[in-house]
Design brief:
Blueprint: H1 2-33, E1 40-44, H2 51-67, E2 71-75, H3 82-89, E3 97-101, H4 103-112, E4 124-133, E5 135-140, H5 148-156, E6 162-165, H6 171-183, E7 188-191, H7 195-204, E8 209-213, H8 214-222, E9 226-231, E10 258-265, H9 270-285, H10 287-295, E11 299-300, H11 305-326
Length: 331
Amino acid sequence: MKKHLAGAIVLAFTAFLAQAQAQAQAQAQAQAADYPRRSITIIDPYPAGGSTDVLSRLLGEHMGRALGQPIVVEARPGAAGTIGSAQVARSRPDGYTLLVGNPGPNAIAASAFSRLPYDVEKDFAPIMIAATAPMLFCVPTASPLKTPADLVALGKSGKPANFGSSGPGGISHILGELFNRDAGTRFNHVPYKGAAPMSVAIMSGELDFGMLSGPDAIAHVRGGKMRCIATAGATRSPHFPDVPTWTEVGVPGVRIDLWFGYLAPAGTPAAVIDRLHGAMAAALASPAIKSRLDELSISVTASTPQAFAQRIRADRELYGGIVKAINLKLD
């Protein structure tokens, strides 16, 4: 009797769970079919005017027309990108609050902070890596440093010399420390509040060099206000074909590129993720968008959500090893 009763309870509970799951799935599908009903906000965890901001506004304008609702880009900078990222992690998983991320808050922070208010792999639903850009070692136009070898020689000379970053724990900071480690140099780190003030410091000669993404550097390079003497990419950038890679000149460990990815809060219905992915892919395929991104030295990627999730896992391992090796602590 007890066995029959226990079996009946298990069957009833299983049926209840199946019904609840079916109802939740139907509700999610209905929600996705009616999505979007209002404006969508992309949280940028960096200061306005940077490459994440520019890319998101370009995509948002095109996507907004396709989705029939405006897309607003909102800057929430601070703490190496983790403040804005945490805001999205806590948001309702309904597709109306998204995050534009890069390796900083989405891979580096997991190792550089002892505690984070979010888990990159558990609290977000990847949509896509939209694009990539090169990371460049830039010097003032009047700098006597002409080649990668000149930079290495300065860093080994024992003379006071500095490199700049867009902030502690960001990709430019990690790249500078990685360069010190693998090239055997001893440059001092000087952090700035974003790429824009660091660019000013490079151009004025306040810094010996700094690491900038292609979009942050290209206008200054074209205007003759700074020069790029090396790239951290695995291959030369088509937008900077005369700039050698560190691998070419004998420092193969300095090999990092910058990706721009979009994420939603975990639990966002798969149909909504699919809708957003399709709208982003269509925007990135637009000749006008591709042309504008090419001008900014940004290369379209348009990955799948699955490929993006794999990249996050791989980068957490990559940057985690670097952070540990240089003993970087941000709190």
